[in-house]
TrEMBL record:
Co-factor requirement: a divalent metal cation
Gene3D superfamilies, alphabetized: 3.60.21.10
InterPro entries assigned: Calcineurin-like_PHP_lpxH, Metallo-depent_PP-like, MPP_YfcE, Phosphodiesterase_MJ0936/Vps29
Key word Metal-binding present: yes
Lineage, uppermost ranks: Bacteria, Bacillati, Bacillota, Bacilli, Lactobacillales
An example molecular function term from Gene Ontology annotations: hydrolase activity
Class of enzymatic activity (EC top level): hydrolase
SUPFAM superfamilies, per database record: Metallo-dependent phosphatases
Annotated Pfam families: Metallophos_2 (PF12850)
Keyword flag Metal-binding: yes
Protein name from the UniProt record: Phosphoesterase
Organism: Trichococcus palustris
Length: 171
């Protein structure tokens, strides 16, 4: 089993990133940050987490996207401001297909949601500092992948489960 912590749109809230790193350092295999940290690419948190450049990130040293390869599975992470993510998953889907990815982590909308379209799972951990959408909680998520099963569990910045958002998929 592989466990990934995903967090996004922290917008300067370095404290919570440090806290998540400390809390989960021996409990997850990967830390993914979907952009808009407003931190520099040289920040020490990026020794633990991998991030992408969001529309509020000004350091050109941050990359636009990255692909994580786990066994024969590819996971794409991007911020989403170049992919019209507030409109649909269509552009992300195209990029996922180009990369052979079956899972996409993204941010930008600040709305926590996990859904599957055309066999690709799209996961937005929500914003850990400025929540939007129907469930106004500052959130991050934990993703467990075991064989062809993917489960997403959401938590608040106080580490309280937000079960209404949880989802699981066959991938
Ligand atoms: Mn943002």
């Amino acid at each position: 089993m592989v466990r990934i912590l995903a967090v996004s749109d922290s917008h300067g809230r370095k404290d919570i990133l440090n806290e998540l790193a400390e809390r989960y350092v021996n409990k997850v295999d990967y830390f993914v940050h979907c952009g808009d940290s407003e931190l520099e690419s040289s920040d020490l948190i990026w020794e633990i987490m991998t991030t992408v450049r969001g529309n509020c990130d000004y350091d050109p040293g941050l990359k636009d996207s990255f692909v994580l390869t786990i066994g024969d599975r590819k996971i794409l992470t991007l911020h989403g401001h170049h992919h019209a993510v507030k409109t649909s998953n269509e552009k992300m889907k195209q990029e996922a297909k180009q990369n052979g990815a079956s899972v996409v982590f993204y941010g930008h909308s600040h709305v926590p949601v996990a859904e599957q379209e055309d066999g690709i799972v799209f996961i937005n951990p929500g914003s850990i500092s400025q929540p939007r959408g129907p469930i106004r909680e500052k959130t991050y998520c934990i993703v467990d992948i075991e064989n062809n099963r993917l489960a997403v569990s959401y938590y608040t910045d106080q580490h309280k489960a937000v079960a209404a958002l949880n989802q699981s998929f066959f991938i």
